């Protein structure tokens, strides 16, 4: 199936290419027919072109002045042509108009010698018998009837146009001896030009009259072989080009229709994988429109660009290449085929793009592929952002500048409306409607934001502390942030209160348990001692147990009082200079039997010199003692314990690290609370107050007490600042 699909695509692409080539070759093969039919579409520029007859009219006056001026050149054109008897303007305006007419006559004479070089002429003043002509022009065949009749066929072969214009003593014009033009049509058009006097701009001066030409004979002729590149040759070229364009339109339209139909029948999916089509289809639609429009322009302007010069055999001559006639003809056709192939390919591609737009939906395609739509969207976002920045207010800030900007904009709009007079009233009504719509929309938004804020506060007031506060409340956002902070404060307070209640419950339970255990033992052994039949050994054994349990109860009560006083701050500290290195060694020495019994290895990293701090030695010893005892109870037997004292520039850190025997599953923040023990089953001796007392004593002396847990590694870090002066009394 895949091979068959690929073959189908190949065949379709081949058909498309062949169709484009057929259309291009077909247009080129129609050139002989176009050349033949072009004569049907030609218009006569000598009678139909107002520009040519304007030139004839202007030349008449230019030559009239030339043949009538005096020998001293004192007579100006305006003196001879203008009749100022009825002029009502002041002298300055009249003088300015005279200068303008003089310039026109001089310019028309220059045009005759420069821009109308292909126009042969002969002029004769019937009064003075003076005459003038273009060099090389023979006027005799036109002036005499018998000579004209004898040379008529020769004149028609030699000239593509000629005519004779005669003015009598009253200024009446007669047209005669016209070739390639209608005498009546030419006469009528020259009369219209003369009647309107538009070439003299008579509207600039009131009641001015243009004197008619009198007693003059003109002969004008345009040769078949145009020797110069001037206005006449350009008009002849345009005439030929337009005739070829009109004659070729049928063939071009047939080729265009053929290409469009073939492109419509070819599915877009079959050609979309062609690289050039795939790349071009990703261009913005505006660029594609320009490309396709250029193709249309090139096709329908082909008569001017390539067709006329190709038919006349002048295309290759433009490149100044000297080749044989057959080679020139072949190259000409090849260039034309390439030209139309490219143009028709672009048209075909344009059809495929239209099919793609239809397939992808017009709105979706323009949204993704239009520069104008993207620019409008960008401007819309920017305008919306600027409008929001201008109209959004934070109630916590001063908004005077924004209010001033809004008022200035409103003032400008009102000023513009006032400049339109009555129409300004209509514009003001429209502006008021728009302003009402914007204000109402803004009011509705603020009202909705206020209701959202009110709903938020009501939810919090009713106890719902988890209500969502992410909604945008516009001008109330700053107030919403404050409400959110209050909400978070309430949540934290409730959380702390729940935690406090839980800890109180656990505290009562733990105190009850730890007090009840030794009391139960004491009561039990007291009952046993009441037995009169006890042996001396048993009695001493029971008394020893009673002594130990009483001592434990005493220690528990003392610890409880100690931590209570530390928590309340009712502790007198005796601050002295203490060498904590010596104090640590003393603590380890006194607890050596406990350490040996726990089968622990102490690894000390302490300075060899003294480290003096301003501390209460008794409370600091108690801190070290509690921590080491805690280690002997809960550290893994046979493991190493690391004790470090690090003397830094501003602080001294003391760290205790040990590996826990049991898995550490409790919260790191709870281990320093009262009656909290690492042994949740409370099988080991202890009050659960050791770390709490240690932390309280450290903080009372201005230090910090931090507990870190990494897996089963338990770490306590004590930090004291140096140079604490005076005793701290809590």
Give a brief rundown of this model.
By secondary structure, the chain is an alpha+beta fold.
What layout of secondary structure does this protein have?
Layout: H1 2-29, H2 31-41, H3 45-48, H4 50-68, H5 77-81, E1 82-83, H6 91-114, E2 119-125, E3 131-133, H7 140-143, H8 145-150, H9 152-158, E4 159-167, E5 173-179, H10 183-196, E6 209-210, E7 216-223, H11 231-265, H12 275-281, H13 285-300, H14 302-311, H15 325-360, H16 362-369, H17 371-391, H18 400-418, H19 422-461, H20 477-529, H21 536-568, E8 575-579, H22 580-590, H23 592-597, E9 601-605, E10 612-616, H24 617-634, E11 640-647, E12 651-659, H25 690-700, E13 704-710, E14 713-721
Overall description:
With 730 residues, the chain is an alpha+beta fold. The chain folds into four domains: 2-39 and 236-360, no CATH class; 65-228, no CATH class; 375-454, no CATH class; 571-721, Heat Shock Protein 90 (2-Layer Sandwich). The protein has 25 helices and 14 strands. The chain has helices at residues 2-29, 31-41, 45-48, 50-68, 77-81, 91-114, 140-143, 145-150, 152-158, 183-196, 231-265, 275-281, 285-300, 302-311, 325-360, 362-369, 371-391, 400-418, 422-461, 477-529, 536-568, 580-590, 592-597, 617-634, 690-700; strands spanning 82-83, 119-125, 131-133, 159-167, 173-179, 209-210, 216-223, 575-579, 601-605, 612-616, 640-647, 651-659, 704-710, 713-721. The chain has a five-stranded antiparallel beta sheet with strand order 3-2-7-4-5. The chain has a five-stranded mixed beta sheet with strand order 9-11-12-14-13. It has a two-stranded antiparallel ribbon with strand order 1-6. A hairpin with a 5-residue loop joins strand 2 and strand 3 (131-133). Helix 1 packs antiparallel against helix 11 (231-265), helix 2 (31-41) packs across helix 11 (231-265) and helix 21 (536-568) packs parallel to helix 25 (690-700). The relative contact order is 0.05. The model is unreliable at 674-684 and 725-730 (pLDDT under 50). It is a multi-pass membrane protein.
